[in-house]
User: Which sequence fits this backbone?
């Protein structure tokens, strides 16, 4: 879960998200963390936050339904343009899919808050999704939810600055040695039935199989008596290699501390740059078109009046 959700009101608190925002665009950092201009949560972030909460409750042996019910209510109110029951379906499928892993894992920390003093009254704040022990290996797992197709690769995990930043602080907090980091990616979507062509046979169009599992495809082939048909072999191989369309985990073992130390130094240097910089630079980011502060940034670059600026900020708060 993003740390700024809990700490965005305190300019003395520095999360990984804040440091990364500054690296990407000092102007966005200024609006979000210094001026603290409020923006609404987006449809892409709310399901993830509620999934995190449901999983936290489940792993703590509590009832996970309240956040799932909250999702349904938001859908019925029109605040989310998604189907009620969708998050419950994904959550139950997730628990079923990983049931054997959940039995083997011993949770050491779930949605754990860690604070580390930096300088003066500044603190580094972290919310660590999940730390667990499995087969004598301690792992930090970060749950990533998305409404889009799964995207994370081995390199994304190997060089994940957030996970590498957490390693030394988790070790200190729990008195353990972290052996690996992991991205646990979850797509918030419903699985689909195997599309059937006009000739009565299953499609071999990979694009149409985006939300179809290998198991359901094999079952359909068996139902139609096509299990041994050679024209489907490459599709089965594709589905096998792709894996489950909703769930994907990538774990990287930490063999030495060089990457952890280098990342820690990079984050420290970013913090020092923030402290030394009196205000946002005049430079702008290539990510401007996707930024919630685009309008106020455009105005600031044109030396705005205070009344115009206030009007845009009030509009951001009321969306």
Assistant:
């Amino acid at each position: 879960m993003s740390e700024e959700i809990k700490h965005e009101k305190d300019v003395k608190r520095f999360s990984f998200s804040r440091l990364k925002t500054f690296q990407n665009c000092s102007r966005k950092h200024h609006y979000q963390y210094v001026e603290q201009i409020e923006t609404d949560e987006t449809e892409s972030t709310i399901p993830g936050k509620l999934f995190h909460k449901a999983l936290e409750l489940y792993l703590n042996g509590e009832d996970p339904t309240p956040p799932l019910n909250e999702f349904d209510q938001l859908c019925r109110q029109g605040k989310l343009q998604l189907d009620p029951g969708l998050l419950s379906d994904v959550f139950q499928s997730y628990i079923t899919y990983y049931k054997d892993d959940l039995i083997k894992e011993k949770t050491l920390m779930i949605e754990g808050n860690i604070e580390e003093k930096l300088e003066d009254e500044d603190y580094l704040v972290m919310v660590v999704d999940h730390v667990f022990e499995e087969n004598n290996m301690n792992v930090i797992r970060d749950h990533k939810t998305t409404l889009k197709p799964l995207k994370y690769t081995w390199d994304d995990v190997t060089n994940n600055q957030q996970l590498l930043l957490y390693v030394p602080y988790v070790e200190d907090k729990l008195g353990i040695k972290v052996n690996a980091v992991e991205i646990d990616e979850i797509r918030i979507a419903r699985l689909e039935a195997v599309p059937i062509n006009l000739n009565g046979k299953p499609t071999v169009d990979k694009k149409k199989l985006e939300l179809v599992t290998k198991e359901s495809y094999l079952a359909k082939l068996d139902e139609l008596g096509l299990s041994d048909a050679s024209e489907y072999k490459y599709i089965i191989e594709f589905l096998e290699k792709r894996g489950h369309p909703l769930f994907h985990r990538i774990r990287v073992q930490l063999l030495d501390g060089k990457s952890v130390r280098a990342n820690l130094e990079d984050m420290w240097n970013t913090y020092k740059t923030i402290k030394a910089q009196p205000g946002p630079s005049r430079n702008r980011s290539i990510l401007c078109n996707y930024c919630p502060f685009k309008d106020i940034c455009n105005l600031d670059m044109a030396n705005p009046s205070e009344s115009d600026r206030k009007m845009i900020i009030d509009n951001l708060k009321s969306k």
